[in-house]
Amino acid sequence: MNSFVRWSTVALALMLGLGACSDSTSSPGKPGANIPVVRLRSEPYPFAFYSGLDKPDRIVIRDPVTWQIVWKKVWGGGYGDSEVPPLPAVDFSSEMILVAALGARSIGGYGILIDRAHEVANSGISVTIRSISPLNCLVTEAFTQPVDIARLPVRGRVEFTERSEVHQCQ
Fold it and tell me: Minimal CA–CA distance to 133: which of 91, 168, 166?
């Protein structure tokens, strides 16, 4: 099977197998209240499957200099000689950026999503990161480095809750 068909199969499987990734807000400021998560890619799969972030990481960005550095790293792998796309504008007085990197994988089919966020006590938020592993799936036989990026309203400290799931193909 050629790589285009294989890649299309993986993308379709991820789209069908993953649910929505944004929560609406309800009474912000109260523990347990949902915080809106606006992913930079609206489809239900990672922002990029090939990135320059080859180690697992969770990055909270609160300033434009760090945002520019991380954006260049995200586009630093798997894209050949292509130029880095323009940096998305962010108002850091009211927003912060979260980046979740899964790290390098020897095959495709893996994914990572910034899934949801909610208020926690003591002026902070908890962000759920969902990592997806393929099982019995037809995947690309190329190294991948899945990464997801989302905007959230500025809040205090950020803690991450990790959730792993297996996407089983038939």
Answer: 166
- Of 4-8, 29-33, 82-86, 125-129, the range with the lowest mean pLDDT is 4-8
Residue 35: name the closest of 22, 21, 25, 43 by CA. Answer: 25
What are the Cα distances from residue 107, in Å, to 10, 49, 58? 11, 11, 22
Helix and strand counts by DSSP (H, E) for the chain: 2, 8
Confidence grade of residue 36 (pLDDT, cut at 50, 70, 90): very high
User: Looking at this protein, which amino acid is placed at residue 137?
Assistant: C
pLDDT digits (tens, 9 = 90+) for 150-161: 999 998 899 999
Give residue 137's pLDDT: 83
62, 154 contact by CB (below 8 A):
yes
Residue 37 near residue 21, CB atoms below 8 Å: yes
H-only helix segments in the chain: 3-17, 64-74
Beta strands in 62-156 (DSSP E): 95-101, 111-120, 124-135, 147-153
